[in-house]
Structure to design on (322 residues):
DNA sequence: TGGGGTATCATGGGTTTTCATGGGTGTCAA
DNA sequence: TTGACACCCATGAAAACCCATGATACCCCA
């Protein structure tokens, strides 16, 4: 397995600990940790592996040094990031500021996004996904990205989940 | 070359297990698993090989990082996906949410789609296929602009190429 | 060409291992 | 001293694994 997939809802205990899904742990590998920072577009928490974080820093530094854009991005991403270490039982402690950003209390959802993943308050993510589905339906471009070749006309058998 | 063909109906047992057709297993190869997610447009379950999923993730990540478009697509595809591992006996466990989406209870139909395949509730798929056939026939009639008594019975879809 | 034998496959059930989760103890720093 | 944090262990539930069996398709040989 090479990518993060699925939506895993796990409990957040009294100490702020939460189990990282076993699938995800396997992908994260040996330096058992990852980077997390609040998304600047929604209530989720962006989670990146070390290597993705590295390439992201390359990208950001490719921008004009000292430019406003560079400064903003660097601040949004790096300054507000945490390194979350996974303990011997496969859990991490969610820092309070991240929990507050996401509105997480008793439960959290680990959401696979391919090369990255996110952490959400479960109901919040349900809502986000519903919206994403509606947007995709309205947006032909999104549908064109589907792996299926020439399928039947999509409007024959509509249904959601 | 990996081409999934045919329609194979297998039982789903009490534990939610179902045998993956031997043909399909042979095509899936050594990392004996595949990715499955509910279709956006019908009641079937879309099934993709790891390599197709990988290239899909490349495509999605080629979009602007943290853009709405990227985030939406990644959520629809990856967040609702499951990695289904094939056990030593050639079976997978269908997660409850996928079974519910497809309306699967006692039986499931593995439907070859070329480079991908789908899983359906058998009767549902029959119906879908009938409709697809009627649409195809209607399109041809429209193109030819001539009436036709009893249409030809296209009996493909049941054999190899 | 037909019959018997064999390999493959789908399916059912039992058992072991993994995983998520709760709680306790020790350590370090403010 | 107190609070935060990292480590250790225990446990119930769920998933993965192992084995057995009936049926079917395939092959070989007479």
């Amino acid at each position: 397995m090479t990518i993060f997939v699925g939506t895993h809802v796990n409990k957040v205990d009294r100490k702020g600990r939460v189990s990282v899904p076993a699938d995800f742990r396997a992908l994260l590998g040996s330096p058992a940790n990852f980077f997390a920072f609040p998304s600047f577009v929604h209530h989720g928490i962006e989670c990146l592996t070390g290597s993705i974080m590295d390439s992201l820093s390359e990208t950001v530094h490719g921008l004009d040094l000292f430019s406003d854009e560079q400064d903003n991005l660097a601040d949004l991403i790096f300054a507000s990031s945490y390194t979350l270490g996974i303990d011997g039982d496969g859990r991490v402690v969610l820092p309070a500021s991240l929990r507050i950003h996401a509105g997480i209390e008793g439960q959290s959802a680990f959401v696979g996004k391919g090369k990255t993943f996110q952490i959400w308050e479960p109901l919040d993510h349900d809502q986000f996904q519903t919206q994403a589905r509606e947007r995709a339906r309205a947006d032909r471009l999104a549908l064109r990205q589907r792996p299926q070749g020439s399928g039947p006309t999509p409007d024959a058998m509509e249904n959601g989940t």
